[in-house]
Design a protein that fits this description.
By secondary structure, the chain is mainly α. The chain is about 70% helix and about 0% strand. The protein folds into two domains: about 1-40, no CATH class; about 65-105. InterPro entries: DUF247_pln.
Length: about 100
């Protein structure tokens, strides 16, 4: 956990999303840093190193960040999804009408 709680801002994020129930970010980061003070730290025996590497590779992919951006900004509610789909259909119909009027000339 000390890798996730580097700054009090990280603790604020965990408290805001109700992952951890302590009310003060300073106390939260202090608690986790004091718990790990006497622990032996070694990078070679970290159990989740493969998971962490896979997660970092996943986050670096531009396709995944574009997909997440699209979901968060355009498909976050059903009404937003319906309006995006309606706009795409409207553009397709407009393009079809333009092509048909050009062919008719």
């Amino acid at each position: 956990m000390t890798h996730f709680l580097v700054t009090p801002k990280d603790a604020d994020l965990l408290i805001h999303n109700e992952i951890i129930g302590l009310g003060d970010s300073e106390k939260l980061s202090t608690v986790f840093h004091s718990l790990s003070k006497d622990c032996v730290k070694g990078g070679h025996d970290f159990q989740y190193v493969d998971v962490a590497r896979a997660l970092q590779a996943y986050c670096k992919s531009p396709w995944h960040s574009w997909k997440a951006n699209l979901k968060q900004n355009y498909f976050n509610t059903p009404w937003a999804s319906i309006s995006v789909i309606a706009a795409v259909i409207l553009l397709l119909l407009t393009g079809t009408q333009t092509i048909c009027s050009i062919i008719a000339l």
